[in-house]
Input
Amino acid sequence: MSVTWKEAADFCQWLTENEREAGRLPEGVIFRLPRDLEWSAAVGLPHEEGTRPDQRSGELDGYPWGASWPPPKGAGNYSQELAVDEYEFTSPVGSFDCNEFGIYDLGGNVWEWCQDFTDRSQDSRVLRGASWFNGYQDRMKSSFRNDLGRPDTRYSSFGFRVVLGAP
Output
């Protein structure tokens, strides 16, 4: 948490180099931030129309915990006004149940940086998943993309996850 997009991307590069030097990472794969559509697949969204993240943002209904609103108790780490968890700010990773694919914390805790730019202007990077700070129904949709992600932005509600895959 509290990392810029550049810091998150630099960490992925460092991790790739470190693990490759240690002989634990084969050629042809790297650690990196997820792509926008990979994040969508991980959270369980069906095919999304649009060629850019800003065109897909908020278009599909549903949340990381299912189709209903409001979130049930234990759905994730979201705004205290929703009263669904006991954490005032961030929670330890894995504090809530994983989804059907075995992936934890795709909703709440911190907005997660993705590789993609939000739109053609290439001013901001995609952030997904909402955070401990969010309680607005539209921003908590699995399909919502936060467009506040200028690559040098640092907020306590921004963080990242690492994926292992092709460059």
